[in-house]
Amino acid sequence: ISPSARLVADAQLRLCVLECQGLPIVNGQCDPYAAVSLLGPSRSEAKKTKVKRKNNNPQFDETFYFEVMRPLSYTKRQFDVEEEDVDKLALRVDLWNASNLKFGDEFLGGVRVPLRVLGQAGVHDAWYFLQPRENGGKSVKVEDLGSLRLNIVYTEDHVFPSEHYTPLRDLLLQSANVEPVSASTAHVLGEVCREKQEAAIPLVRLFLHYGKIVPFISVIAHAEINRTQDPNTIFRGNSLTSKCIDETMKLAGMHYLQVTLKPIIDEICTEHKSCEIDPVKLKESENLETNRENLRHYVDRIFSVITSSGVRCPTVMCDIFFSLRESAATRFQVDPDVRYTAVSSFIFLRFFAPAILSPNLFHLRPHHPDPVTSRTLTLISKTIQTLGSLAKSKSANFKESYMAAFYDYFNEQKYADAVKNFLDLISTSGKWDQKSIETPIMLKEGFMIKRAQGRNRFGMKNFKKRWFRLTNHEFTYHKTKGEGALCSIPIENILAVERLEEESFKMKNMFQVIQPERALYIQANNCVEARDWIDILTKVSQSNRKRLSTYHPSAYLNGHWLCCKLSADTAPGCTPCTGGLPANIQLDVDGDRETERIYSLFSTYMTKLIKMQEACGSKSVYDGPEQEEYSTFVIDDPQETYKSLKQIISAVQTLEQQHTKYKRDKFKKTKIGSQEHPIGDKSFQCYIRQQSENTTYSI
User: What global pTM score does this model have?
Assistant: First the structure.
């Protein structure tokens, strides 16, 4: 294959552990779980299902994914890495009995499934007898081990060079500019896919890769909010908007989730404290009040780490939340809380609460927690979810009386205030062209001591106590609270916020707010306050276009900088800025592969695309009640939607022809016994069989 036409196969293996029957009962119990691994060179990771308590016929229904990356060409010299021969890989599924004994879990039996059983279809669904452990262990009759049902799906994405995808990719990336957005290519994909999640995953990855995710989500969210009649039902359904935001938070917010929740989740899982507050489920040895106190302590800790984590929220999430807040507040102006609930429905309900409930699914823990810890996390998750919802009648949100009674402890205004402050901070946009439409939000205020900035050349540079106030627009200080501002610093003029060395003025807890002409030196009341001010000031100014990369860690006194001894007060900094925040995580996304996946979806649902075209024609000429077969499509402008559909179908058909031509040409030019395809190459022989069924060409 020439370099311009080389085809790459990015493969994914999906294994679904469905169910087991007739598992042995060991020492009067059977608490099984399955451990799944893909056997092959340099592969050792094992994944586990949940433990099914007291059940020797468990229904697991859990799905696991494994990535298999390999080039289709077998010319080893062209590649730096050794490809994985799929035919040599195998799946291993072992069944274990979760034991509380000090000797560990007990092996019940296992199966080894070579991937070559998948054949041309790439799908395999079968029952297996569990086998004894290999190489050792006491002999056991196979029929005594029970059986296991698996569903395995293997998929490959065949990706062309980038230029092949230009027409379809351009249509997708222009989606945010199409009016109405329901006529855009990305929105059409969501309409024709059976599940919105199918469309959301490649769309989000593609838009993140090209830096277009915020405008796209903003326009589809705005359209959905305008279609919503009741502010209490915003984003309640599984719409394309909600699925795209979910996927964005998973990708862009994973590091944020790790640094925020992982330490406390690890502590909860390690301590194994009982937090059961349901009197019916309470064990004889447990004390209800002690359990309540344990649970209250954990909820307070997690609530505190979440509401103080706003400065670490990724910029892309903040920009999306800003857009949601502004659209919701504009649409429902009579509801003062809708600006909060539009954001909390995602950050609490769909991000933090699920991560607390199932930490293994968010890479916070390697495996499912034990039943006691799982129950604790369930109770914490429910409480945090309710705290974040800002519902007016909190206790009414719980159907269980014991949860309503427990929640009374949190019915204090300080919790609602903390949630609102957190939501205000994470829904503050860093884009200055949006400041004109953004409502000013007070983020932090309090007394601190500042050194005079020396704006008058011969003025006194003494220290004075002032009332400081930070909004998402400006940083001001006042003689006292409630008075007019003595000085106002626009957020866009903050070039850096850094600590100031104690040696400068022989004073602790000092930091500096660096502006284009000078630095403002401030002393906080204590080290915690200093850290909070630095974090929040850095957060609101992190997107400034002229942010500094270096700064002076000490003050400019007596004609020189104390840190580097340079005499010019305009000398560039001598120390790299800390930034205060981790950079947005760079995602390892292949834009061409995501476009190929979107093409595959359009190709799969081609009949729906054609039906949607028919629906556009029907709406254009007939203004009566919708035909039932067309009622599932959202079509705001039939003419624009028809135009987009025509372009989509044309781009998809062109790619389809290119795929067919490539396969045909490859098949015609391939020679068995060549260096690229030596005799005995089983993968290629399988490919030959497949092609011979679809074409009359022969070798």
Answer: 0.68
